[in-house]
Amino acid sequence: CEVMDPACFLEAGAKSIGPGHFQCAFDCARSGQTLAIYDRDADRIYFIAGELPGKNPNDPVMPFIHKKVDVTGTVYHRAGVYGIVIVKVEPHKPGASGAAAAAKGAAK
Question: In angstroms, what is the C-alpha Rg of the chain?
């Protein structure tokens, strides 16, 4: 999975994902845009949800914008939209399976 800016992705598509889009995503996140986790294998976006009011949901992923990560948390699916309340985020470890992880409440 990769940390990304979902607003830019919805407007510009795949060209808005990757290291070349880092500064724009970083600036958007600092301005209040909620980041998301993009699972390329499933072509699925997980919007990051905060566990508590007043806590910025972007905080755990700010160091990982447009980097591959393994994320553990509680996944929610409502009305066709996926969200995740993050418990743990770390750099991606090759060989992890996204589909299996999502079924266990994690996004990889």
Answer: 13
